[in-house]
Specification:
This protein is mainly β. The chain contains 6 helices and 34 strands. Strands 16, 17, 18, 19, 20 and 21 form a 6-stranded antiparallel sheet that branches. The protein has a 5-stranded antiparallel sheet with strand order 1-7-6-3-34, with no helix packed on it. A 5-stranded antiparallel sheet has the order 2-33-32-31-30, with no helix packed on it. A hairpin with a 4-residue loop joins strand 31 and strand 32. The longest helix has 21 residues.
Length: 507
């Protein structure tokens, strides 16, 4: 059997066996109550970050910028996140479940900013919108009277991240295809099939761009009931270069991965399926008594790996990775409370502001000795962050500075209210606190045009001011974050908190 026929047989069989069988059953709802959430919102305005939208579009709204944009800065910040979380008196209880809405925050170059947002018109969203209720399986909430699905894309929410490849904009989630959008109007063009025999195979939410402009990504076949990792390589021109299945020794969960100049690194978190619950996150039980298995994959042989073992760590997101003297060092954010890692900010999603707690975290370094096969985690001494990003121009043999939302001083919400830079090699942390009523999201690094020096640029991130009920955006000097925003803008409305974004610089 040739390679393509083998992949087609493996992947279509796994989809039918697991997703199809699960979706044909019907279970009682275990969801939140919209009325309870609305009651909580009245007492805790910061819960607006988890309020469901009720319109397929927001904006466009053009607002003035406060301050001055630095010379050379211009373009659009695209962001994605769960936005439609309630239908017909039924509310999702897991933050990862809501249908995706993509936002464009465009810096116009005339002292103004324009925001617009649209729901990603996936088959799931379109059919459920017409029916007036949720129909299909979700990641973490049991839906009553679930309808059968043919493949992953029937349940695809496209709600986690966005990426640009060769001027094309894609909305991404963990378990399905990338959905292409018009980068100006944000209209949905449709799912992308990189090759006909790979339709609906997961193209995950954290692709990484190589120095030649090509893009690496993965898809977890474990989410389809099989075993292994699909490793994607997309050229800078947007065409598929390769798609290889890496066999894995365990069922392992991975949300993201890390990359050096020569290798891809996948950390598989061991888990078991429990007897209670019907969705992936309801049934999944992390297995901290077992070691993480770590695959170091050569870019020039992406269907092979050198395997390592390290103590269990509950990780969603990685920072940078570097390679020197036969050793790979990567940075990751560990969720210290394994139970909360299953459902981050679950009380906020339910409207229970009094008991809401953000998942505590620690920044770790993983050292992988390519010669001896040894692996070990190290505590960096930093924590209380998530969504770390960095300047991808950093030299491949040294650690990068991380940029991430964090908490600084008192806050009315159990969420991030600041942004910080972390120089882990020097043990330095610099932060800007937006205020006790402001919720801060991921901040994307934007390089200064024409510069090749690492960290010469800006970070741009979105905010929610619970006191004024406005969402906003801020631009800061990456090298002087502690000086605060160079420019910021505020909308006349709030938008739901999301997860990940990317910045498209204006030519």
């Amino acid at each position: 059997m040739d390679r393509r026929r083998f992949l087609r047989s493996l992947l279509s069989g796994a989809t039918t066996a697991v997703i199809g069988a699960s979706a044909l059953r019907s279970f009682p709802a275990l969801a939140g109550d919209p009325a309870r959430f609305a009651e909580g919102l009245r007492d805790a305005p910061w819960l607006a970050g988890w309020r469901s939208v009720s319109s397929e579009t927001l904006g466009p709204a053009t607002v003035p910028l406060q301050g001055r944009l630095p010379a050379g800065f211009g373009g659009t910040l695209y962001r994605n996140g769960p936005a439609w979380t309630e239908r017909n008196g039924f509310r999702y209880e897991h933050w990862f479940d809501g249908d995706g809405m993509v936002h464009g925050w465009r810096f116009n170059g005339d002292g103004t900013l324009t925001h617009r947002a649209k729901m990603v018109a996936t088959p799931k969203f379109t059919r459920e919108h017409k029916a007036g209720r949720f129909l299909y399986m979700s990641a973490g909430t049991s839906v009553p009277d679930m309808q059968p699905v043919r493949n992953n894309d029937d349940a695809n929410t496209a709600n986690t991240a966005v990426t640009m490849i060769n001027g094309r904009l894609f909305a991404l989630c963990e378990a399905g295809s990338a959905f292409e959008l018009d980068p100006d109007q944000l209209d949905t063009i449709g799912p992308v099939t990189w090759r006909p025999d790979l339709a609906s195979v997961p193209f995950s939410a954290h692709p990484l761009t190589d120095r030649d402009g090509s893009v690496w990504n993965f898809g977890s076949i474990a989410l389809m009931g099989g075993a292994g990792i699909m490793i994607w390589h997309i050229g800078a021109d947007g065409a598929l270069r390769s798609a290889n299945v890496l066999d894995t020794p365990i069922f392992g969960y991975q949300h993201a991965f890390a990359m050096t100049d020569r290798h891809l690194v996948f950390v598989l978190l061991p888990f078991d399926y429990g007897d209670t619950g019907n969705t992936f996150f309801e049934r999944m039980r992390f297995a901290p008594q077992r070691a993480c298995r770590i695959a170091v994959v050569p870019k020039d042989a992406p269907d092979t790996a050198q395997w390592f073992e390290a103590d269990f760590a509950a990780i969603y997101h990685f920072g940078d990775a570097c390679e020197r003297n036969g050793e790979i060092v990567l940075r990751a954010v560990r969720h210290d409370d394994i139970d909360r890692a299953h459902s981050v900010m679950r009380e906020a999603v339910a409207g229970d502001a009094a008991h809401a707690v953000n998942s505590p975290s620690t920044v770790l370094q993983l050292r992988l000795d390519l010669r001896s096969g040894g692996a070990r985690w190290e505590d960096t001494g930093f924590g209380g962050i998530e969504f770390p990003l960095f300047d991808a121009r950093t030299a491949g043999d040294r650690g990068a500075r991380l940029y991430a939302p964090t908490k600084e001083g008192g806050a009315t919400a159990p969420y991030f209210n600041a942004v910080a830079s972390f120089d882990l090699e020097r043990g330095r942390r610099r932060a800007w606190r937006y205020g006790q009523d402001v919720l801060a999201e991921e901040h994307v690094f934007v390089p200064r045009p024409g510069s090749r020096d690492a960290d010469d640029g800006w970070v741009v991130g979105t905010l929610l001011d619970a006191k004024t009920q406005r969402s906003g955006i801020a631009v800061l000097d990456a090298r002087r974050i502690e000086d605060g925003p160079l420019a910021q803008a505020w909308l006349p409305y709030t938008v739901p908190l999301g997860f990940h974004g990317c910045f498209a610089q204006r030519a």
